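Field log, afternoon session.

UNIT: design team B
ACTIVITY: writing a sequence onto a fixed backbone
BACKBONE:
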C-alpha cells in the first residue's frame, strides 16, 4: 500500500489530521512520494559503475526541461546550452 510505503498510513487510518494538515494532504503525499522515488533512484544508481560521474552531477530527481525541449541534436550540445542560458 502506498501510504504504508511512505509512512503515512497511520495518519490516514487514525484520522488524526489537523485542519491545516488535511488542507495540505495532497501536497504532503506528493512530497513523500517524491522523497521515496528519489531515494530509490539514488540506490539504483549506486549499483551502476558507469554512472559514477552522472551521480556527482545529477543529485536531484527532476526533469531537465531545457534539454528535453530541444528537438535538434545539435541544440543539445554543451556550448549551445550555455549560450541559451546567458
Amino acid at each position: 500500500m502506498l501510504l504504508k510505503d511512505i509512512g503515512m498510513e497511520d495518519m490516514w487510518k487514525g484520522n488524526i489530521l489537523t485542519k491545516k494538515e488535511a488542507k495540505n494532504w495532497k501536497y504532503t503525499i506528493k512530497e513523500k512520494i517524491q522523497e521515496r522515488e528519489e531515494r530509490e533512484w539514488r540506490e539504483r544508481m549506486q549499483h551502476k559503475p558507469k554512472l559514477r560521474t552522472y551521480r556527482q552531477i545529477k543529485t536531484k530527481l527532476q526533469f531537465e526541461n531545457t534539454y528535453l525541449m530541444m528537438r535538434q541534436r545539435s541544440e543539445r550540445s554543451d556550448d549551445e546550452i550555455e549560450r541559451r542560458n546567458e
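LOG NOTE: The longest helix spans residues 25-46.
NEXT ACTIVITY: expression trials, pending approval
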